[in-house]
Amino acid sequence: xxxxxxxxxxxxxxxxxxxxxxxxxxxxxxxxxxxxxxxxxxxxxxxxxxxxxxxxxxxxxxxxxxxxxxxxxxxxxxxxxxxxxxxxxxxxxxxxxxxxxxxxxxxxxxxxxxxxxxxxxxxxxxxxxxxxxxxxxxxxxxxxxxxxxxxxxxxxxxxxxxxxxxxxxxxxxxxxxxxx
Length: 180
Fold this sequence. Notes:
This protein is mainly alpha-helical. The chain has one domain (5-179): Four Helix Bundle (Hemerythrin (Met), subunit A) (Up-down Bundle), CATH 1.20.120.450. The chain contains eight helices and two strands, in the order H-H-H-H-H-H-E-E-H-H. The chain has helices spanning 5-23, 28-32, 42-55, 57-65, 81-84, 90-110, 132-156, 174-179, and strands at 121-124, 128-131. It has a two-stranded antiparallel sheet. It starts with a helix and ends with a helix.
């Protein structure tokens, strides 16, 4: 599928509801479990998404669109959620994510981005030149990636419990299938 801003907005506006429905009334064991040392829990992922709403997508979009010669992005702290979310309930994080996402999408829509602006560039600290279309497509896929990650983490909790059916559950065999 070719990038289409309206199609991206379809996904971006659904993510808060998806997370609220999927995680909203689950026990702590589901919310705080992970896949082992140095892996994230669903709680951590929601915090990460919040940090991205504050410091990544829209700030970088604004850098690309501005008229100044400085198009350099600030590095993104992929682990900021471990301090920023500390002491907050998942319910509070989900509400914060919804509010930030709604505000960001409203701002995005108000910008009335033209097709010719999608090729405008910013400078990523690792990748170098990136376009506005690439940033917006990445924002969309980033949401899908973390929704899939949450599903994988939660499935992992029953990896032993499924017994022989593990052979038919690709989500529990992703490391092995990834290398095939």
